[in-house]
Design brief:
Layout (H helix, E strand, L loop, with lengths): L4 H7 L31 H7 L16 H7 L12 E4 L6 E5 L6 E10 L2 E8 L3 E4 L7 E10 L8 E6 L7 H4 L3 H9 L7 H11 L38 H7 L18 H9 L7 H11 L33 H23 L11 H5 L17 H10 L26 H8 L7 H10 L3 H13 L4 E7 L4 E4 L8 E4 L11 E4 L7 E7 L6 H9 L28 E6 L14 E9 L4 H10 L2 E6 L7 H4 L6 E7 L7 H10 L7 E4 L5 H18 L9 H7 L3 E2 L4 H14 L5 H8 L5 H15 L8 H22 L3 H10 L3 H34 L5 H13 L4 H16 L6 H5 L3 H10 L4 E5 L7 H15 L4 E9 L5 H9 L13 E8 L2 H7 L3 E7 L5 H4 L4 H15 L2 E7 L3 H20 L5 E7 L6 H4 L1 H21 L8 H4 L8 E4 L14 H20 L5 E2 H15 L11 H38 L12 H32 L12 H60 L6 H18 L10 H12 L5 H9 L15 H5 L7 E2 L2 H28 L6 H16 L2 H5 L1 H29 ...
Parallel strand pairs: 9-18, 12-14, 12-15, 15-16, 16-17, 20-22, 20-23, 23-24, 24-25, 28-32
Antiparallel strand pairs: 1-2, 2-5, 3-4, 3-6, 6-7, 8-9, 8-13, 10-11, 13-14, 19-21, 20-26, 21-22, 27-29, 30-31
Helix pairs in contact: 5-7, 6-7, 6-8, 8-10, 9-10, 16-20, 22-26, 22-27, 24-25, 25-29, 27-28, 29-32, 31-32, 32-42, 33-41, 36-37, 36-42, 37-39, 43-44, 43-45, 44-45, 45-46, 45-54, 45-55, 45-62, 46-55, 47-51, 47-53, 48-53, 50-51, 50-53, 51-53, 56-60, 56-62, 56-63, 56-65, 57-69, 58-59, 59-65, 60-61, ...
Length: 1913
């Protein structure tokens, strides 16, 4: 609000420090001056102070100077709203303040307390309350609170004033009103004359005439002798005389309920007067009109007569003006300002001020917040509108009970005693608000859509609804045509009672007589209460109109006078029940008609009759006597009233030419029932004889002539209506219109649906090639889409799309009008068809015609959903066009429009009920756009209702959530619709979601569908879909339909069972409708138990059908509690429709249901889906639903993603465990090797004891890791992220995998320990002999040195060599060399082979006896298939010829042989001795490979032959390895190996040469270097695997399959595909090795293992080697430094210390160490120095060697082969699909079911058609959905249906393709290499289906991504 400085000064009450007269204005309208106390402010000024643009807003009291405050205000940031202050606990010395906080972050608050312009106190606090003490009694203080923000800004101060009490008095006694203060000061002033002063004083008072206990201040009613002090809020004693006193006493008591009495405020009247002083009105008539429209009436009180109401213009309490004797300008001006301030004040009280300009929207009203399910009563005025809305939106007839309970006021005092005054004041309702005011305020503050919703719900409650809505701020009434448009009523007039027909029509277009009821002056009869009795039967009374005897009905009306309400009486056709046999509208004008002449005039022109209620008629009353109305006038008076004048009535009646029939009097002889009966007769007479009937929409013309606004006159509304009318005006015949204008959703769409379902169900494929059949179906679909595109977009759809593309408001009005027009048309058409149906049913011969009419009834429905359905089809058809296409580009915006409509609260069709299909592309893209629109606020919860048709499902949802699903006659929901409701931000945190999606479904067991063959299937599909999408499913059961309940429950149980099996366990709530008994819950205990028993039985039956028999109970498949999961809801109506209101019990029961559902959602465990995840669920669910066998067809990217995450995590844990155990075993083997040597770590020297200790330790370590793995699995499933709940069914599998892993590892670890101990024991004797021999040589050499030195002759090297050789020969000849025992490895291997084949029986034994192992394995293995085919017939349809089988078997054999060769070669490279474990490992490897090929495994001859071949060459290699080892470790050979070294040492010692450098080099090169190399070879393989596992390719088996297939596609080499399909494992091993080479040959990326930057030429493998080398060198240097500190003084002990320190990681050769130790005279310090240098040289040497050695050579010596380890990881269980041989991808080792993401044509497995020899194109993922059959060895060559393949292969899950494009990858490959595969397999090329040829490489790659769920979100 902007104003000049002059205005600011004029409005400031009291610009000086003392009370003085204000300057007179230049206007002569008011000659008197006003007196005002220094500290007063008006309510209006307070509002002006909060205005953004007024500098004076900071002034708490203008007495302190506006200029000062203007100056100070500059430092405040006006963008920050001031806080609001509440003052409490006022005493003579203190008071307390409390305030709210701004939205920004506050650092502190500053509180200032001032009086007379001086600051008394200033307090800074960081809380929101403070108590000020040490104040003076009876002083008015100015209080400021401002906020200091963290960003440095400061808010404008909030301001209020408060006066402390006098000492010794309580607060109530000491307070005087501002009126008294003014009165005291005004005693010194003489007023010029009463007429001019009268407005002043009158404006200070406010009338409260509708209060029973308060009369007008002008006249005293005998019933109200204490009128001046009747307001409990007023602390005024009755004055003895003087009108000023009277006016003052009535100051603000009525208008400012709840105002703190300590605040020094002026009345709003004074503020209005100040502003009106400058205003001049043009003439009296305008002012008169203002006053008439502002008048307020409170006549609804039977016991109170306020003569003021009879004074016409002055009856409005909002206008505190007496009729002026002269000068209308003053009056009009004052009233204009009065009304404005009053409406604003009232809206502020309600907290609705912001919605007066920015209207309340439906989304705001419908959003779910804490109050939605909060039972807390209203606690303040601002709670009341929301309380009313909450109740009304749930159609609760108690909505108008709008009392609030203040926290500060308790209904019962804790004190006892008698205080009648307090009792009386507490019982008064003056502090409550009138329901009509709240209703008026809400209509004024709501947009058009909310107004329609309010009117509709009020009508359902049988409340009267606004016809003329007053806006006292704008001096205007509005005719509510638009608001009433949604009200549709059904009734049966007398004329149709015989035929039992009915009329259903929109109320605004119904031609009904209207009877109006008005009041003239004061009336002791309660008009509204009499009207309620008029409309109610004696058995059932209902408050249609608010009246004074209702809750808060006697509260003074503040803004609703002038409101005209309307209701309707509609007969049901039963004379015994109907009050009126014809329909009639009844209007009721609130207030005195003399004050609202415009409204009265409107009623006179639109009504058939007007009933005027009065007490006292003025004979001169021109309002009646000059009335020129076509309406019949009835005068209704109370003869018992003391003001009643029979003479005056007669005079008026005579002038109006009325008869006795038009006069209805309540006399002492007539009781109320007879009086109402008389009224009814009069109304009945008028209704039956009148011809004056008018539609409400016709009344608009009358309204406009009278200056009344019409709510339908907005440009957006008219534009929307015009566009809707333009479309619907073209509709003549609905069926023909659908065919012409909405062609895409007709037969074409139904045909497309049939084709889509046939594509996956394959019911009609017969003996035809499946893939060709599917290809033909795809071509048909393509043609239908082309046909859709050729029809183009119809004119109607062009207009429709254009209209909904307009702005939000216009779009909303357009859709509203579309719905109205279409509903009206459908209603008319259905009415005609029903009549025809009735006529035809009279003759039983008309069966065909009846059937045709029945079909027409089904097809005559036309709603906006059909237009949106067409829009969806247009969009879907456009997607079938080649991209980019202009049509597609033009229609790209449609999904965004759909998403915006969802956000705006419009339902969107999810399932097309006519075609039983979902337009997936359309709905998916709409949801994608919705996700974009809402951004991060994209979490949704889904609530769905299921039940039999016409059991009130839509009504239940509408009542529960206030929404508006279609429930009109003949418009039962078809399909399923989804609707979004926002969730309030506060509740979002609790529910962890942002929106609630409500899904309304068509009724199950629909009569229209039961005649169709697939009705049960349709119901099953729908139930499965919506249950799968829901977080909570409400099962709606109407008790009268209990016979059908079993069928419904069976459908529902199937749906829940399917959801449980795919990982979702939704919650369920049973709603039993039409159960009204209060004891229903207890009485139905037996019924609930019976229901639960039936549910259990159905669960077992369904589980058997779905082959999931482990589900025994209903609670196994879903979260359901029989005691708490049921809700009993009474019937919807109270009484007989159409006049029955909604049953309060129904509304309350639904409210309880809503609370329970919100609570269930609050307590749920599963995470909330985001919009895109919901989209994914919907897509995969619907694809699965379309398959007959749902459980084996369900594929979902969310489930796949969740499973992938689980596998990835488990694989990490598994590798950590394996790595840890490998490290442990390696260390254990090192310790075993070092036991009994210088490097021994353990104090235990006994090998057996040490072995036992290690085994115990190993078991302990593995137990800890097993527990850790199981804990990891448990914790993983406890988290709520990542949709873990979807894969909870796999928990047991992974737990079993963890246990299995531990068991396998334990066996392997213990075997390795045993092998290490056995080898150590085998070497013990040899090591002892070597050690003794070395000692003997050392002893002899030492003696020789002594001997030579004693000669005292200088000997040269040649002489010394001669002496040494002589000594060597002599010593060696004396030594004993034990002959080494050579093991016969062939014998050992043969023994193990016989044990391995023992289970194969006599045939295997026979072959073994005939064959010498020594002769095996010398030639290449050749497979012979004769034995295999002797057992099989060759009549299988998809036959594999003998040569084909032989080739495949040979390839498998070659693969196994190659694997075993690598294993044996790896053992050989380690140069260790042979151990029995080695052959066991080889045999185990063979068995694992055979397990993966059942056909080969069953061929005993093949298995025995292969094992003999492999064991033959293995035994030969192991024999050589064993002999080489013995030779290498022969004592004599070992001794001679060191002869030259010993001789050199001998000469050094003799010559006393310095050996330090030489010995250091020897120690490093002979002892440390081999140990370091061995360490690197042991650990490098592990590090390579570690590094490779960081790559996505090896994270899971699914990822591996994706990347290997992608790599094949990128290279497009036939040989690779041939190898992949024929020799899968062999190919995979090569591929892994290639990937390892690629990764470790690259130097572009630095490995995380690298400590320092490597040279540009270095490879990653060298980086790993260097890292291990660096680790070892560091440890060696640390050991040297540590040994130095020991100061042993001896090189031997120095070296021993080093060896001991390194013994836990390095295996140091004892032979080399022993040789190093003899004849060693090195100095320790010098040795240590040279040792350090040698270690550096070692590092350099090895680093150079790493760079030079080839990758292949490096891999050859690794103890762990990374390729093999990675192969084990990705190959998994190794099982392959029994039909197409794709590998299993399931995670964990112990999975119960095998599965693969992508199956392939079985022609790639060499299958061909026997008759034609052509390769087969069948894909097993399609075959398992068809009626085709197969046979194989497992079926004993009997034919078996593909659908029941699980009977034969129970451990395989073969999912049907998630989409038709899923197998495009292999279709593309088969098409591309068809001829190549045929040539390779000696077959004819396959007949490639036409659609396969259209697949591109890019499409193949896309299908790969979809199948493996890569980057598909």
């Amino acid at each position: 609000m902007e104003s000049s400085e002059e205005e600011e000064l004029s409005e400031a009450p009291g610009a000086s420090t003392g009370p003085e007269m204000r300057e007179k204005d230049s206007s002569e309208n008011f000659r008197g001056s006003l007196i005002q106390p220094e500290c007063e402010r008006t309510e209006s000024e307070a509002r002006m102070e909060s205005s953004e643009d007024k500098d004076s807003s900071d002034a708490p009291c203008s007495a302190f100077g506006p200029e000062k405050n203007k100056k100070d205000s500059s430092r405040y940031d006006k963008r920050i709203r001031p806080v609001k202050i509440t003052v409490s606990n006022i005493s003579s010395e203190s008071l307390s303040l409390q305030w709210d906080t701004p939205a920004d972050e506050v650092e502190s608050f500053t509180v200032t307390c001032s009086t007379e312009g001086e600051t008394d106190q200033q307090v800074t606090t960081d809380t929101i309350s403070v108590t000020l003490s040490n104040l003076k009694p009876a002083v008015c203080y100015s209080l400021h609170v401002s906020a200091q923000l963290r960003d440095g800004r400061q808010s404008r101060p909030a301001t209020t004033t408060a006066e402390t009490t006098r000492e010794g008095l309580n607060q109530t006694e000491c307070e005087t009103t501002e009126g008294e203060a003014r009165l005291k000061r005004s005693e010194k002033k003489e007023l010029a004359d009463a007429p001019e002063d009268s407005p002043t004083s009158e404006m200070r008072g406010e009338d409260s005439s509708e209060n029973d206990n308060v009369s007008s201040p002008d006249q005293k009613s005998p019933e109200d002798s204490q009128e001046l002090n009747s307001d409990p809020n007023s602390c005024v004693h009755p004055p003895e005389s003087g009108t000023q006193s009277k006016a003052a006493s009535m100051s603000e008591s009525a208008a400012r309920e709840g105002l703190n009495q300590t605040e020094c405020e002026t009345t709003e009247g004074e503020a209005r007067l100040k502003r009106s002083e400058k205003k001049e009105l043009a003439d009296a008539p305008e002012a008169s009109l203002v006053s008439e429209k502002r008048g307020e009436d409170s006549s609804e009180n039977d016991n109170q007569k306020s003569p003021e109401d009879s004074q016409g213009l002055n009856s409005d309490p909002n206008s505190c003006v007496h009729p002026p004797e002269s000068g209308t300008q003053s009056k009009a001006a004052s009233m204009s300002e009065s009304a404005e301030t009053h409406l604003e004040s009232f809206l502020e009280d309600l907290g609705l001020e912001q919605f007066y300009t920015q209207k309340l929207s439906l989304s705001k009203i419908l959003q779910i917040d804490k109050k939605t399910t909060d039972d807390q009563p209203a606690k303040c005025k601002s709670d009341l509108p929301w309380y009313f809305l909450k109740k009304l939106m749930m159609v609760n007839v108690t909505a108008r009970n709008v009392k609030y309970t203040s926290d500060s006021k308790s209904g019962v005092s804790g004190k006892t005693g008698l205080n009648l005054k307090n009792l009386v004041s507490r019982l008064k309702s003056a502090n409550m608000l009138n329901p009509l005011d709240i209703i008026t305020a809400l209509f004024l503050c709501s947009d058009g859509f909310v107004q329609q919703e309010l009117a509709l719900k009020m009508s359902m409650c049988q409340f009267s609804v606004p016809l003329l809505l007053p806006d006292c701020d704008k001096n205007q009434s509005t005719l509510m045509v638009r608001a009433l448009r949604d009200i549709v009523k059904k009734y049966r007039p007398k004329s149709l009672s015989e035929s039992k027909g009915f009329i259903e029509d929109r109320i605004v277009v119904s031609e009904l007589p209207m009877i109006s009821f008005v009041r003239l002056g004061e009336c002791s009869l309660s008009k509204s209460e009499i009207l309620n009795k008029l409309l109610s039967s004696s058995q059932q009374y209902h408050d249609t109109f608010v009246h004074h005897n209702m809750d808060c009905g006697d509260s003074p009306r503040r803004i609703s006078n002038g409101l005209t309400e309307i209701t309707w009486y509609l007969p049901c056709g039963n004379e015994n029940i109907d009050i009126f046999s014809h329909p009639v509208a009844l209007a009721n004008l609130r207030g005195d008609m003399a004050s609202f002449q415009t409204q009265f005039s409107f009623l006179c022109q639109t009504s058939a009759a007007v009933f005027v209620f009065f007490d006292n008629l003025d004979p001169e009353c021109e309002l009646l006597t000059n009335l020129n109305s076509k309406s019949e006038i009835f005068l209704v008076g109370n003869h018992q009233s003391r003001n009643f004048s029979l003479d005056a009535l007669e005079q008026v009646a005579t002038e109006m030419s009325l008869t006795d029939e038009n006069i209805i009097l309540k006399t002492t002889d007539i009781n109320e029932a007879d009086f109402v009966k008389r009224l009814r007769e009069a109304v009945t007479h008028v209704v039956e004889k009148t011809k004056k009937k008018m539609r409400i929409e016709q009344m608009a013309e009358v309204a406009l002539k009278l200056g009344i606004l019409v709510d339908e006159d907005s440009p957006e509304y008219q534009s929307g209506k015009k566009k809707a009318d333009a479309i619907t005006a073209e509709i003549r015949d609905i069926l023909k219109y659908k065919e012409d204008q909405l062609p895409l959703q007709g037969q074409i769409w139904k045909d497309l649906t049939s084709l889509e379902k046939e594509e996956v169900r394959l019911r009609k494929v017969g003996s035809e090639n499946i893939e060709k059949y599917k290809s033909d179906l795809q071509l048909k679909k393509k043609k239908l889409r082309q046909k859709q595109n050729t029809s183009g977009i119809s004119k109607a759809m062009t207009s429709f799309i254009s209209a909904i593309s307009s702005n939000t408001l216009e779009r909303g009005f357009f859709l509203k009008w579309m719905r109205i027009n279409l509903d009206d048309m459908s209603r008319v058409k259905l009415s005609e068809l029903r009549e025809q149906y009735k006529d035809k049913c009279k003759n039983s011969e008309n069966n065909e015609e009846i059937k045709e009419i029945d079909q027409q009834i089904s097809n005559s429905s036309l709603g906006t959903e059909h237009f949106f359905r067409e829009m969806g089809q247009i969009y879907e058809a456009s997607l079938a066009l080649e991209k980019p296409h202009p049509s597609h580009q033009q229609l790209n915006h449609l999904p965004k429009l759909g998403a915006q409509l969802l956000l705006d609260g419009f339902p969107l069709e999810l399932v097309d009920g006519d075609a039983s299909n979902i337009p997936l592309s359309w709905v998916s893209d709409v949801l994608s756009q919705l996700s974009d629109l809402v951004g991060s606020k994209n979490r949704i919860l889904v609530v769905t209702v299921l039940g039999v048709q016409s059991t009130g499902k839509s009504t239940l949802l509408n009542t529960m959530f206030g929404v508006q699903f279609a429930v009109s006659s003949g418009r039962c929901t078809r399909g399923a619709f989804m609707l979004l409701i926002r969730i309030d931000e506060e509740l979002q945190k609790e529910l962890k979601c942002d929106f609630m999606m409500i899904i309304d479904t068509e009724g199950l067991k629909s009569p229209e569908l039961t005649q169709l063959d697939n009705s049960y299937e349709h119901d099953n599909e729908l139930a499965t879909l919506v249950v799968g999408l829901s977080d909570i499913t409400i099962i709606n059961i109407a008790m009268e339909n209990s016979t059908e309940m079993k069928d419904i429950l069976q459908i529902v149980v199937h749906a829940f069972l399917r959801m449980k099996e795919v990982g979702k366990k939704p919650q369920c709530y049973f709603v039993h409708q039409n159960v009204s008994d209060v004891s229903a819950h207890d009485k139905n205990l037996r019924d609930r138990k019976l229901l639960f028993q039936q549910l259990n039985e159905m669960t077992q039956a369904a589980a058997k059908m779905e082959k999931k028999e482990q589900n025994k109970s209903f609670t196994d498949v879903m979260a359901y509690d029989p005691d708490t999961g049921n809700c009993y809801i009474p019937g919807l109506w109270t009484g007989n429709p159409p006049m029955a209101p909604v049953n309060t019990g129904y509304s309350e029961a639904v409210y309880e249901l809503k609370k329970n559902i919100i609570q269930l959602l609050r307590n749920r465990d599963s995470p909330v889906n985001k919009v895109l995840e919901f989209k994914e669920w919907m897509t995969s669910l619907w694809n699965a639903v379309k398959h007959e066998n749902f459980l084996f067809s369900f594929r979902n990217s969310l489930v796949a993603d969740a499973y992938m995450r689980l596998c990835t995590e488990f694989n990490k844990w598994e590798w950590e465990f394996k790595k840890e155990m490998y490290n442990w075993v390696t260390n254990a083997e090192t310790k075993i090797s070092n036991i009994g040597t210088l490097a021994a770590q353990s104090k235990i020297s006994d090998l057996t004891q040490f072995h036992s200790q290690l085994k115990t330790e190993a078991v302990t370590v593995m137990s800890v890791w097993e527990t850790k793995l199981l804990d990891n699995v448990t914790q993983y499933f406890k988290q709520t992220d990542g949709h873990v709940y979807l894969v909870v069914g796999h928990k047991e599998e992974f737990e079993n995998s963890a246990r299995s892993l531990r068991n396998q590892t334990e066996r392997s670890v213990l075997d390795q320990l045993q092998a290490a101990v056995d080898i150590k024991q085998g070497m013990a004797e040899i090591d002892r002999i070597k050690e003794n021999h070395t000692k003997e040589i050392e002893k002899a050499a030492s003696e020789l040195i002594e001997k030579c030195r004693k000669r005292n002759v200088q000997m040269n090297d040649e002489e010394l060599d001669e002496e040494f050789n002589k000594m060597w020969n002599e010593t060696v000849s004396k030594l004993t060399f034990k002959q080494q025992h050579v093991t016969n490895v062939f014998e050992n291997v043969s023994c193990h082979l016989r044990v391995n084949l023992a289970h194969r029986g006599s045939y295997a034994h026979e072959i073994l006896n005939k064959t010498r192992l020594e002769d095996c394995g010398k030639k290449n293995f050749k497979y012979k298939a004769a034995q295999f085919f002797n057992k099989m017939t060759d009549t299988i349809l998809n036959v594999i010829p003998v040569q084909t089988h032989t080739k495949a078997a040979q390839e498998n054999a070659d693969c196994i042989i190659k694997t075993c060769e690598k294993l044996v070669n790896n053992k050989q490279s380690q140069k260790s001795n042979y151990h029995n474990n080695y052959i066991e490992e080889v045999l185990k490897t063979i068995d694992q490979h055979l397990e993966q090929n059942q056909d080969l495994k069953e061929d005993t001859h093949f298995e025995v032959s292969l094992k003999l071949h492999i064991c033959g060459f293995t035994a030969r290699k192991f024999q050589k390895m064993h002999e080489d080892f013995l030779e290498e470790n022969d004592p004599y050979r070992c001794l001679n190996k060191y002869k030259a070294k010993f001789c050199s040492d001998f000469k050094d010692v003799f010559h006393k040469r310095d050996q330090c450098q030489k010995k250091a080099e020897e120690f490093v090169n002979k002892c440390l270097k081999p140990a370091v190399e061995d360490f690197i070879n042991r650990y490098l393989g592990l590090s390579i695997v570690d590094e490779m596992l960081k790559k996505q390719e090896f994270s899971t088996r699914v990822s591996f399959q994706y990347y290997i297939l992608l790599d094949l596609l990128s290279r497009q080499a036939f040989d690779d595909y041939l190898s992949f399909t024929s020799s899968y494992q062999s190919f995979v091993k090569k591929w892994i090795l290639k990937k390892i080479k690629e990764h470790f040959s690259s130097s572009s990326k630095t490995s995380e293992f690298e400590k320092q930057p490597s040279s540009p030429s270095s490879s990653k493998i060298s980086e790993l080697e260097n890292q291990h080398l660096e680790t070892n060198v560091s440890r060696i240097n640390e050991a040297i430094e540590k040994a130095k500190t020991q100061n042993r003084g001896n090189v031997q002990t120095f070296v021993e210390d080093i060896c001991k320190d390194l013994g836990d990681k390095l295996t140091i050769s004892q032979e080399a160490l022993g040789a190093f130790m003899i004849l060693n005279n090195a100095d320790q310090d010098k040795f240590a120095h040279y040792l350090t240098i040698s270690v550096k040289e070692l590092k350099k040497t090895l680093t150079e060697r790493f760079h030079k050695t080839s990758f292949e050579d490096k891999l050859q010596y690794l103890h762990i082969q990374p390729g093999g380890e990675l192969f084990k990881r990705v190959i998994g269980c190794g099982k392959q699909c029994p039909f197409c041989a794709v590998p299993c991808e399931a995670g964990g080792e112990a999975h119960a079911q095998h599965r693969a993401s992508l199956h392939r044509p079985d022609g790639l497995r060499r299958y061909r058609w026997r008759k034609t020899d052509k390769l087969s194109t069948d894909i097993c993922s399609s075959s398992v959905e068809s009626e085709n059959r197969f046979r194989c060895s497992q079926t004993k060559n009997e034919w078996h249906p593909y659908k029941n393949y699980r009977d034969i292969f129970p451990d395989w899950d073969i999912f049907s393709d998630g989409s038709l494009e899923a197998s495009d990858y292999w279709k593309y490959i088969m098409t591309k290499y068809n001829d190549d595969f045929a040539k390779e397999y000696n077959a004819e090329p396959a007949d490639i289906p036409e659609t396969w040829r259209e697949i591109t490489s890019q499409q193949a790659e896309e299908s790969l991504k979809k199948s493996f769920n890569v980057n598909v979100k």
